[in-house]
Design brief:
Blueprint: H1 4-60, E1 78-84, H2 94-111, E2 115-121, H3 123-131, E3 136-140, H4 149-164, E4 170-180, E5 183-192, H5 196-200, H6 202-211, H7 223-298
Parallel strand pairs: 1-2, 1-4, 2-3
Antiparallel strand pairs: 4-5
Helix pairs in contact: 1-7, 2-3, 4-7
Amino acid sequence: MASQRDVKNKINSVKNIQKITRALETVAAARLRRAEQRIEALRPYAGAIRRMTRQAARAAGAETARLPLLQEHESARTVGLMLVTGDRGLAGGFNSQIIRAGVRTAAELGEQGKEAAWYTSGRRGVSSIGFRGYELSGTYTGFADHPTYADARSIADDLITAYVDGRLDAVEIIYNAYISPLTQRVTRERLLPISAATIAGEEEEAAEESAGPRALVEYEPGPEELLKRLIPDYIEISIYRALVESTAGFFGAQMTAMRSASDNAGTLITDYTLQMNRARQAEITQEIMEVVAGAEALS
C-alpha cells in the first residue's frame, strides 16, 4: 500500500489539474457565448445572399449555364477536400472526427478513380494530415478561435481559382456543424460546382410561390452580371458559416471535455482521500501493535 505522503502528493497533483480544467471550462463557456452570437448575427446576411442569388438566377434563366462556377467539368478526376479543424486540442474528439471523415472521403474518391487534393484550416488538421503523408495544397491557420470574413474570402479565392483553372474538378467542405454545446455534427457539403438546385433554392422557391405573387424586379446591371458577382459571395458566406460554426462547436466540445475532466478529477480526489485515510489507519494500527508488543516484551 502506498504511504500516506505519496497519496497526499497525488491528491495535490490532481487538485492542481482540476483547477486548470475548471479555468479552461470557464474560458470556453465565455467564448462559446460570443461564437453563438456571431452565428445569430450571420444568419440574416447569409439568408439575404441566398435570396438575391436565387432571384438573380431565376431572372437570368438559361444564361446561368455559361457561368464557370456553375459548369461541371467533363472529367471530375481531382476533388478538393476542405477540412475545417481547430488550432488547439483539449476538445475531445472534435478534431479527430473531421480527420477521420476526410480520410474516409478520400478513400471513397479513390475507389471511384478520383484523387483528393487536401485543403485544411486549423493547426490540428494541418499537422494530422501532414503526419499521415498526404500532400497539402492549401493550409490556413491562426484564426480558428476567431475567424473573420477576410479569412473565408482568402480560402474561397484559392478554391475558386483552382476550380476555374482546372486544377480542381469539384470542391467539398467537411466541418463540425454546431447543434448545441454537447452536440457537433460532422457535415460534408459540396461547394463547387454549385448545383442549379442549390442556386434556385427549390424548396424556398416553392414556399415563396405558395405565399403569393412576387414583385417584378429590374436589374442594373443585368441579372447575368449580377449573378456573376453574387456566386463568389455565396461561396464565401458558405465557407464563413462553416468556420464560425466550427468555432462554436470547438468551444462547446472543449467546455464539455473540461467539465468531464473536472468531474473525473473530483472522483479521483475522493478515491485518493479514502486511500489516504486507510493508509493513516494502517499506520496508526501498526504503531499501536508495536507499542503493545513492546509492553508485552517488558512484562
